[in-house]
Design brief:
By secondary structure, this protein is α/β, with parallel strands linked by helices. It folds into two domains: 3-163 and 275-359, Zn peptidases (Aminopeptidase, 3-Layer(aba) Sandwich), CATH 3.40.630.10; 165-272, Alpha-Beta Plaits (2-Layer Sandwich). The chain has helices at residues 3-15, 26-39, 95-114, 132-137, 141-145, 189-198, 201-204, 248-259, 282-291, 306-309, 336-359; strands at 44-46, 53-58, 63-68, 85-86, 89-91, 119-124, 148-151, 159-163, 165-174, 215-223, 233-242, 265-272, 275-276, 297-300, 315-318, 333-335. Strands 1-2-6-3-7-15 form a six-stranded mixed β-sheet. It has a four-stranded antiparallel β-sheet with strand order 10-11-9-12. Strands 4-5-16 form a three-stranded antiparallel β-sheet. 43% of the residues are buried. The mean pLDDT is 95.
Length: 360
Amino acid sequence: MSNLGKAAKTLGELVMLKSTAEDDIKPIVDYVSDRLKRTGLEPRYHNKAGRPAIIAQSGKAGVLLSGHLDTVPHGVNWDYKDGETVDGKMYGRGACDMKGGCAAILVAAEDLVAAEVPFSVCFTTDEETGMKGAEAAAKDKAMRTASAILVAEPTGFDIVVREKGLLQFSLKTGGVSAHASMPELGENAITKMTKMLCKLEDLTKVPHDSLASLTMCIDMIRGGTQINVIPDECVADVDARYPASMTPESILELVRKRIGRSGYELKILHQLDPVETDPELPAVRILKEVVGSKARLITVPYATEMVMFKGHGNAAIVCGPGDPKVCHCDDEHIDVSEVARAVDIYVKYCTKMAARGKKG
């Protein structure tokens, strides 16, 4: 079977295995584990008490290829069924983000084992919800000894060398419940929240250059228990993405300057540092040679597990099949030919990096 056929078959099987935070993750973990074992690799597991990460290694050192198997929730406004292929594009939740990249890694692993090229793989199952699996897997010997770590997230085969930082926090206002017909007896927590959020208007405007600037979005608001009851609590969740020139502390200080330092509770929910890999490193230059002259070295506004894998002295980069603009969208899809191309890229990259390691 050609790489195109293998890519289509593997991608279809992955897409049909549901893997949101609400799903039983065991079926897709078993599928990937069985594939690795049939390839001749022995999986080992991290974060076993939570949603596990799978690592397998062939030979010593070599490139580590990484992907996440979990997806965001499906959504309802779809025109295509999961696994349906139209004009060479396969549709389904996770087809692009990022079961396409994971399928390419699984197929590439077969070719690399057959060619006796050293490499390793990592598959996580909680990238969309916390990256605890990646955090645990980062301590594995395969991570520590890898010549490069390549995350196969969809980039259209551009090469990500920088990611913005992430800060997610909640704001909570309190009030006093009362009958809605007698508001003078209560204190409305939602009203307090809306007045406070209006003071953040300048921070939540879309900047001219979102890659170089802070972006802040108010993405969830919860408050009230019933239409005829004055709400005594309101919570707003805020997502901020920031460049390396800023810190979480500097962002929160901007917030406090606008809304004051009292009358609310602020809780940090999740944060990830900005991350950058030197674009002049041999691991980056070799990947660009393999992908081709059209590949750009880029910065992205979102976070990937690249941030969890930094710090071992090896290059962490992101490059994979698919258009990132269709991630998390209705009718998510990927061109199957891109998945097959990713197989070729990963095999060539691992082979060139191994040859360089022997010379070094």
